[in-house]
From TrEMBL:
<dbReference type="InterPro" id="IPR001647">
    <property type="entry name" value="HTH_TetR"/>
</dbReference>
<dbReference type="InterPro" id="IPR009057">
    <property type="entry name" value="Homeodomain-like_sf"/>
</dbReference>
<dbReference type="Pfam" id="PF00440">
    <property type="entry name" value="TetR_N"/>
</dbReference>
<feature type="DNA-binding region" description="H-T-H motif">
    <location>
        <begin position="47"/>
        <end position="66"/>
    </location>
</feature>
<keyword id="KW-0238">DNA-binding</keyword>
<protein>
    <submittedName>
        <fullName>TetR/AcrR family transcriptional regulator</fullName>
    </submittedName>
</protein>
<feature type="domain" description="HTH tetR-type">
    <location>
        <begin position="24"/>
        <end position="84"/>
    </location>
</feature>
Length: 223
């Protein structure tokens, strides 16, 4: 799968950026270093001025790529979910058993992420930490409906709908496939977060992962 992913260009809605960052060395550095900086100081404290100082570039040059830091976060999130979708598609393409196919997809979307060496300038393990901590900030805004119409969250919804289809294949009579699928994807981020910060309100820990929890729930679909 790594060889296949290395030959693919991760697709992100062009309405999110002003200039595709993948088309230049500066653009790739903006993406690479913004991931590291957001992970270090948090999105609320992140500014283009701080990023410009970090990469030795004028702040104005960053605005040629992204209108504001919100659009940058939406870009990073879209890149992550697009990368995740490719992983799910390749990993499940040759699986015929509905339960095994669903279990594989759920494992990929809920597991702890390691860096994918086939993507040279993005560390997915760090980006995963940002998604866990900051992803909800991309849509908990007054502009969410308009940005949704513009397709900013299309890839995220595609992943959920792929899982919806897998749930339906496994159990066509299950009455809540969309709610279950969205709970798996969004809930796993929440479980990863509270596992690290609010340990007393989750059963996930060093021995029990969010993946274990959601795979256990999948067993109920066949009952």
């Amino acid at each position: 799968m790594k060889n296949l992913l290395s030959n693919l260009k991760i697709q992100v809605n062009p309405k999110i950026y002003l200039k595709d960052p993948e088309t230049s060395e500066l653009g790739r550095r903006i993406v690479q270093e913004s991931i590291i900086l957001i992970d270090e100081i948090g999105f609320d404290n992140f500014t283009f001025k701080k990023l410009g100082e970090r990469i030795g570039s004028n702040e104005s040059s960053l605005y040629r790529y992204f209108e504001n830091k919100h659009k940058l976060l939406v870009y990073l999130s879209s890149w992550y979910w697009s990368w995740m979708e490719y992983r799910i598609v390749f990993a499940t393409a040759n699986i015929s058993d509905p339960e095994e196919k669903l279990r594989q997809a759920v494992t990929l979307v809920t597991e702890k992420i390691e860096d994918d060496e086939s993507t040279s300038y993005i560390d997915e393990s760090i980006l995963n930490r940002i998604i866990i901590a900051e992803f909800t900030k991309t849509f908990l805004t007054k502009e969410v409906d308009e940005e949704n119409k513009e397709g900013f969250f299309l890839i995220y919804k595609q992943i959920i709908n792929r899982i919806v289809a897998m749930i339906a294949d496994l159990n066509p009579d299950f009455p809540y496939p969309r709610s279950f699928a969205s709970s798996i994807v969004e809930g796993s981020l929440h479980q990863h977060f509270i596992k690290d910060h609010f340990k007393t309100i989750t059963d996930c820990n060093e021995k029990v992962s969010p993946t274990d929890f959601y795979l256990y729930l999948i067993n109920s679909l066949n009952k």
